Amino acid sequence: MLVTGPNGSGKSTLLRMLKPQISPAGELKGSITFGETDIRSMSMEEQVSRIGFISQDPINQIVTDTVEEEMAFGLESLRMSHDSISVRIAETSAFLGIEELLHKRCLELSGGELQLVNLASVMVMRPELLILDEPVTQLDPLSSERFMAALERINRELGTTVIMAEHNLSGLLRAADRLLVLEDGSLKGYGEVREVVTSLYRDDASLFAALPAYVRCCLRLSKGGICPKDVREAARYLSGIELRTAVVDNKPAADTHVSVRGSHLYMRYTRDSEDILKDLSFEFPAGRTIAVFGINGSGKSTLLRTISGILKPYYGRLDVRVDTSSLLPQDNSTLFSKETVRDELNASGSSDRTVTDAAELFDLNDVLSRHPFDISSGERQRVALAKIWLRNSDMILMDEPTRSLDNTFRKKLTGLIRERKTGKTVIIASHDMEFMADNADICYFLHDGKLIGPYDPDAFFGENRYFTTGLSIASSRAGCRLIREDDLVIPDETL
Amino acid sequence: MKLRFKEYHPLCDAFFYILCIVFTAISRHPLTMVISLCASILFHIINRTEKMFSFFLKVILPIILITTFINLLFNHYGVTVLFSLRPGFNVTLEVVMQDILLCLCFASITLWFKAFSDSMGFRKLSFLFSGWLSSIGMILVLAMRFIPAYISHALLIGSSVRGEYMVYRAGDKSKRSLKERFHEGSSILASLFDWSLESSIETADSLNSRGFSLKGRTIYHDYSWTFRETICSISFTLILVLQIISLIHGSFDVRYNPVIKFPVTDVVSVSGFISFGVLVLIPSLIDAAGAIKWKRLMSRL
Question: Which of A384, B62, B71, B182 is the most buried (most CB within 10 A)?
Answer without folding.
Answer: A384
